[in-house]
Amino acid sequence: MDRTSGTSRYTIIGKLDARATTAPEGLLIPSHSVVLRDKGVLLSSVPSIHRRRFLAGTAAVTAVVALSACGAKTDSASSSDKAAKIDVSGDTVKVGLLNSLSGTMAISEVTVRNSLMLAIDEINASGGVLGKKVKPISEDGASDWPTFAEKASKLIKEDAVAATFGCWTSASRKAVKPVFEKNKSLLFYPVQYEGLEESPYIFYTGATTNQQIIPGLDYLKSQGKKKLYLVGSDYVFPRTANKEIRAYAKANGMTILGEDYAPLGSTEFSTIANKVKASKADAVFNTLNGDSNVAFFKEYKSAGLTAKTMPVVSVSIAEEEVKSIGPQYLADQLTAWNYYQTTEGAANEKFVKAYKAKYGQDKPTSDPMEAAYTSVYLWKAMVEKAKSFDPEKVKAASDGITFDAPEGEVTVDGASQHLYKTARIGKIGSDGLIEEVWNSGKPIKPDPYLKGYDWASGLS
Amino acid sequence: MNLLKGRSARAAAGFAGAAALLFAVAPLLLSDFRLGLLAKYLCTAMVAVGICLAWGRGGLLTLGQGVFFGLGGYAMAMHLKIADAGPGNLPDFMQLYGTATELPWWWQPFANPLFALAATVLLPMAVAAILGSFIFRRRVKGAYFAILSQALAAAFAIWLIGQQATTGGTNGLTDIQGFFGYALDDPVNQRMVYFVIAAALLLLIALARQLVHSRYGELLVAVRDSEERVRFLGYNPANVKLVAYVVAAGMAGLAGALFVPAVGIISPAMIGIVPSIEFVIGAAVGGRASLVGAVLGAVGVAWAKTALSEEFPAAWTYFQGLLFIVALAFLPGGLASLVGLVRRRMASQATDSEETKPVVPVGEAA
Amino acid sequence: MTELAGLEIRQLRVSFDGFTAVDGVDLDVHPGDLRFLIGPNGAGKTTLVDAVTGLVRAEGSVLFGGDELLGRSVHRIARSGIGRTFQTATVFEELTVLQNLDIAAGAGRGMWTMLRRRRTVPESVARTLETVGLTELADSPAGTLAHGQKQWLEIGMLLVQDVRLLLLDEPVAGMSHDERQATGELLQRISEERTVVVIEHDMDFMRSFARSVSVLHAGKVLSEGTVAEVQADPQVQEVYLGHTAAEATADVTVQEA
Amino acid sequence: MTVILGQTFTGISIGAVLLLIALGLSLTFGQMNVINMAHGEFIMAGAYTTYVLQKSITGAGISLLVALPVAFLVSGALGALLEWLLIRRLYLRPLDTLLVTWGVSLMLQQLARDIFGAPNVQTRAPDWLTGNITLIGGDDPLTVANSRLFILGLAVAAVVALSLTLRLTPLGRRIRGVVQNRDLAEVSGISTERVDRTAFFLGSGLAGVAGVALTLVGPIGPTMGTNVIIDAFLVIVVGGIGQLKGTVIVAFVLGVLQSVLEYSTTVSVAKVLVLVAIVAFLQWRPQGLYTLRTRSLV
Questions:
Q1: Are residues C55 and D297, on separate chains, in Cβ contact within 8 Å?
Q2: Which of residues A48, A81, A114 is at a domain's end?
Q3: Of B230, C199, D82, D85, whose Cβ has the fewest other Cβ atoms within 10 Å?
Q4: What does the H/E/C string look like for D214-242?
Q5: Are residues A246 and A314 in the same domain?
Q6: For residue range C81-131, what is the model confidence (pLDDT) as tens digits?
Q7: Any transmembrane segments, and where (chain D) (predicted)?
Q8: Which residue segment(s) compose the domain that A403 sits in?
């Protein structure tokens, strides 16, 4: 296979999915596995984008342009098709850290940056990776998706990093995904997300939906909560999550009484609180993000709603957010994650202690921070197993890698490049910490397309 | 008319110099990555050309250029997404988030490349024409106009985000593979995109220059300085302003359209209040009334943003704030006014001897 | 040169939030007249001009050369041949004298002409430059002109517009004696071919150049006639603080100085 | 029925918040014609003042009440400083003021981030403000949040105080004098500079008070000001420049409109519809709801 079709491969997977879901007969082909596992077979049947070049005479372009176009054409064995070059010449190896340090998302992403730095420092203190010290190259995504794409490209092309860690929002991940795929460089993404995605160059170390949302729903079901109200911010994760929740509810005899979205950053929730209250639901499933949570919970309490009468399960409120909303408004509400600061185990004690020592005693640790911390160690283990920084070899070595993470043992699923993770439901205490009230007992196999759930067959 | 000739000759030399820089020097000196960044900066410079016309010359503080940039960008990106998906297929994001099994009717024409290309410029212009004719006719101006255009930018961004199934929501349109059949990940084609952008920028500058130096350009300045007076001369200032507003919108639309292949993404993050103000700052720093100043200012500020945020992310915010304050409070003409100041000082030294005393009118009645 | 036209105002009334600034004014300005409007502050002089030029909404009737003006938009009234100046000279400071006049001359230009560069000086502009004595300064920015020159430029802009009626709001305020004299002579020449209405406080200036005078008081026309007739009107003397005409005039000129 | 009443009250309470954040602007923008985009950051300063005070004053209720005057002074001082440093150079260039103060607002946000950290901070509300009052009992009760009532009361008090100040005090007369005729005020011996600065102090101080109130209903973070500033400006624009009664009426009308639309559609759609309604309204009345018709528009 030449390099050309190599890069096109991943586009084609997308196209096949398209055909699958919109087949003229109206038949849905739920079997994602077929598409993925047999990509070699299907590949041949689909035409790839023609790698045509602009001709010298293209209209509206000056002679100078034409000249340089010819010049470029002669060395058309261009670099983009090669795997990203990695600078391993010295006694250091560079990795990229790509988080928003400014803008609206800085609130959350700075904490992820902190724990990435912690992991890198620890690794360097114990000898580095393959004998090389890890040198972090820091970039600011500035809460702006095109900037994320630009910075990703800079890290890969200019800095020749071995891997990049970061991104928080789905939008930023979607923006950088093609950059990593085209340059064949690795991204470790540490945040729970809406699933329905697998990229050969992204490792997802946060939860996918069957490790967070579905356990959350299972828990509500086990508590006898039948009528749900859905509240979310207006973006990809809540909308997709709510689609899945609706499908789950339908299959499990639950009813969805309402579904409301507020624009990201919205801080006026009195109407939504009124609607929730009037619905007399058993519980609320909350996928709000950031600032909106503060306003929502203040309004929720003002409306006289409590965790006792109508509990809220949140999937974006971790310890850091509890701190900024205030336990006054959150006491006894529920969260669904894979990690809490209070999670038991020696690995977590060490992590929490190290984090507080480095960043301050009042700083809490949270799920995305832990997933970020874990992702650096996982990369180290993969590199050491592969005995190379080459992304292709690292990928090949990834399957089955385990790590005794603060959240408990995690294992890399090589096929999906997600992790086996234990789901944990927590209750927010008046001290601002979250206590686990339920867990899944053992790590759940990642299933980003929910192929293992019959009710989810119409979703993707 | 020697003066005029001298000016044209200087302009021609300037254009040749700029073309040499953009088409020969930059591609030789810069890596593919940096050239790609330059392409992005040039897109903001295209918006700045329009802002120079509307704000610098016409006094219309267009704080909503993000809307037009977005219209152009989405028109282009949607065509490319549809083309990527292939005939009969839905773009990937619609399969993920949408419920429809076919393209909504209002996206369907964008499958046609010619329609999409025309729409990138004509759609923003049409929207600007409708908005502008309402706003200017009712003599909403100055601060009102600025606040209103901000509000519109906010509304448009919120609306786009809310329509996830058909516009990609917050994600916007990403992962664009091809550009009219050419694979975008090929550096050669990426370089061609850069050339197209550079050529388009030069074209827009030439167009704006013609407008600025035309009778219309003089009239536009007159409207900026005293709208009421122009009205008493028998012109309708609303129409004069409308032309500048619509042209600026078209330029922002084209910039948005070309931004898509250069960066590979268009999203509401490029549309709301903040990006709309950022479009203005470049022009303000360089010199709102000077085309060259506005363009260089836009490129300079965009470059500074990348450079500073690579080194000191937090410092960028302070620096940006300071730029606004210094450029507008203390140097309202922008950096270009410094050049003008020097030139005027030199000229005034030459003419100081000729005293300008009041002359009593003489001669025949008209 | 277009034919002369006069102004016929009937029962004109303008009010703001209950306050009536112009209260049923009847006024005839004959074609080719050089009419002065005088009256104390707040008499409604400027508001009257505002109403004629469409700046404020008014009731009644304003006929110009037989056409009704009320209800038309400002720029349409301007296009029908009425031009005005303001108390403070408003010229386009950033444009040159030539550009100012060129814009004034070009309201009827087509799209194509507008989008092209001005290559030559239009004949009417050149003639007007001579008339108002600004030929030497044609390429200077209007912002650098002396106060009197700005007023002449403004009048020049009305001339190139080829208006048939000039409404001038205190054109000689702040001018030196020589400049006033020159302006007055300019107005007399202009009024040979156009109708001119001047709002003025300067009684000396009025006496030297007015062909006819209307006195406004509290939104009404108090008196009308030649300079001598008006000055002899006891009502007018009463209005000017109950003094005699001579004293009143002195009073006003002192204020001006 | 309960729903309609509930939504109406919700609308009124949204309106009260809008009114409180727009009130300071009605002075600085409405009276003095200064577009101060950093007004939102003065609101933020008021909110952070509450946060800082709560660190030393433990009683949530007392600290909140203390925070009201302190925040007024803190934000007011910031405003006066801004006026002295920058705005007084820009009175003749309103559009430039807009962009300059936008720059100031960026810097203040980053400053807040550097001092208090990027994450939101929390304040405690006193217990008597977190509950609610039941207006109609029964199966479908109509309740009204105490915090909202408090904000409504605060807004009304602020409006009364401001209009009395403008109408009755010598300071108010001077402000109005300067607004109506700057030159005349100057020659009659009023120091316009001092009046400008005092008016700016008052307007910015009111932003600080609004900031204290916002801690009861929303997040306290570096970007809290930018989230509300455009809405506040729209209230003034629609209400009519320099018209306190216009500001009051429009704040409540927009609040009710927003809540009704939110209930019948979605929050996003409601926001877009409200903005469209505002644009349409300005087509009808470009000078806003209430205007002083002046003798000459030139």
A1: yes
A2: A81
A3: D85
A4: HCCCCCECCCHHHHHHHHHHHHHHHHCCC
A5: yes
A6: 898 888 776 889 889 999 999 998 887 788 888 888 888 888 889 999 988
A7: 6-27, 59-82, 149-166, 199-220, 232-257, 269-286
A8: 92-207+347-420
